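Customer escalation, tier 2.

The customer says the design service returned an amino acid string that "doesn't look like it belongs to this structure." They asked us to rerun it and document both sides in this ticket. The original structure tokens are below, unchanged.
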């Protein structure tokens, strides 16, 4: 379809900007913004080139959204309408798709000044509050699609994974996005990313019922099949280990934080709509449930993830590994006072013990009848989200002394005290990585 006048072209341009969460008051402003995009060194902006045809099958809803956005940007309203129809046909309960299709139809008749404007056909689908939620969802989804993590950068939070940990999940609350990373020979590879919903009141959970999603490092502790769930949780659930030791030391309360799907009549939820869980579409949740290993998949929830150069990431990873190596060497030669210097004055064990009491209590895990040799393996290390200068490390410790051999798993939290990295909390983990 050819554009018959500038009015239709202007409407397409306005809708395209609205899809990105932007309200443009004049075409000239839109043109200036398009010519001089803001630089974002930590992300990679996709070029707005001529869109490629969308494969007929399988239909990826986000691929269709991006295609519609890009075709509108170059003035191809008919193509955008066709793909909006395909989106609604494939996912009839996708409210954002229904809203988009309605606004495209309105372009033939009335001005559209915002996504689902006052005269939008979406008025029969959602309330005013629901319309705002859909605009927020559109902005989050399209920002994630048009600005991808630069493949030359790595997430700062994930410093090291054990060799047997195949995957890690990284939630970036600011982007309403979950990133699935694959671990290959200590190299991180971004495999896929998903739109997610978080707590109604955002992140940094502190107490039971505060409608917030926790920030921290957790692990998937079990898998719950749909047949054992109510319809509300959709295609499956992956409970995580909130609260962890650090949360309990900070006095944080609450429980039952899950990754889960949506009710069968709901395709997706607003960016902030849960009671604290991380919610995904049933389509995405099914993929995730089939991918992750229970008790062996870390889940890092960050308020705003920083993507850093490989050189900087390698330096921070090396620092974390060296902290454990220095601790291991001191533990082997074991005058207790030397090992004690690795522990902070503010140290508290998971049970609230001081460093002196903790070392006395756990001395048996560091001593034996003869010369002591300590080995460290299965090490995972994370720059802890939401708090500066805090590194969470856990590892399998093997102690050999004479004919005695014992194995325990330690979790340590390192922080800076008096300009030195020291252990501020430590625990012996009975079960692996929970």
């Amino acid at each position: 379809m050819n554009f018959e006048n500038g009015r239709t072209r202007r409407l397409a341009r306005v809708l395209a900007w609205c899809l990105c969460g932007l309200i443009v008051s004049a075409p000239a402003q839109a043109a200036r913004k398009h010519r001089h995009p803001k630089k974002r060194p930590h992300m990679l902006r996709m070029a707005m080139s001529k869109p490629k045809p969308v494969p007929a099958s399988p239909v990826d809803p986000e691929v269709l959204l991006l295609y519609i956005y890009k075709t509108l940007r170059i003035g191809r309203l008919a193509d955008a309408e066709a793909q909006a129809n395909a989106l609604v046909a494939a996912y009839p309960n996708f409210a954002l798709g229904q809203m988009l299709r309605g606004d495209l139809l309105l372009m033939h008749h009335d001005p559209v000044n915002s996504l689902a404007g006052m005269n939008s056909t979406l008025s029969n689908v959602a309330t005013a509050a629901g319309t705002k939620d859909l605009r927020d969802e559109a902005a989050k989804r399209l920002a994630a699609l048009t600005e991808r993590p630069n493949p030359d950068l790595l997430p700062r939070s994930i410093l090291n994974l054990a060799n047997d940990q195949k995957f890690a999940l990284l939630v970036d609350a600011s982007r309403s996005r979950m990133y699935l990373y694959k671990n290959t020979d200590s190299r991180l590879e971004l495999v896929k990313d998903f739109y997610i919903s978080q707590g109604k009141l955002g992140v940094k959970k502190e107490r039971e019922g505060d409608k917030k999603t926790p920030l921290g490092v957790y692990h998937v502790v079990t898998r719950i099949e749909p047949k054992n769930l109510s319809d509300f949780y959709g295609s499956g659930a992956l409970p995580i280990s909130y609260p962890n030791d650090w949360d309990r030391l900070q006095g944080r309360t609450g429980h039952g934080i899950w990754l889960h799907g949506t009710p069968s009549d709901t395709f997706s939820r607003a960016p902030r709509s849960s009671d604290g869980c991380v919610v995904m579409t049933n389509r995405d949740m099914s993929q995730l449930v089939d991918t992750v290993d229970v008790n062996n998949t870390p889940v890092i929830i960050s308020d705003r993830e920083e993507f850093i150069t490989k050189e900087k990431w390698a330096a921070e990873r090396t620092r974390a590994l060296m902290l454990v190596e220095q601790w291991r060497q001191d533990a082997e030669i074991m005058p207790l006072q030397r090992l004690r210097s690795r522990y902070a004055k503010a140290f508290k064990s998971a049970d609230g013990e001081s460093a002196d009491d903790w070392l006395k209590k756990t001395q048996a895990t560091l001593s034996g009848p003869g010369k002591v040799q300590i080995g460290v393996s299965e090490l995972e290390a994370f720059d802890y989200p939401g708090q500066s200068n805090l590194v969470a490390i856990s590892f399998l410790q093997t102690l050999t002394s004479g004919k005695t051999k014992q194995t325990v798993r330690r979790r340590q939290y390192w922080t800076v005290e008096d300009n030195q990295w020291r252990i501020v909390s430590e625990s012996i983990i009975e079960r692996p990585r929970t």
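Tier 2 assessment: The sequence is consistent with the input. The radius of gyration is 25 Å. The longest helix spans residues 310-333. Sent an explanation to the customer and offered a walkthrough call.
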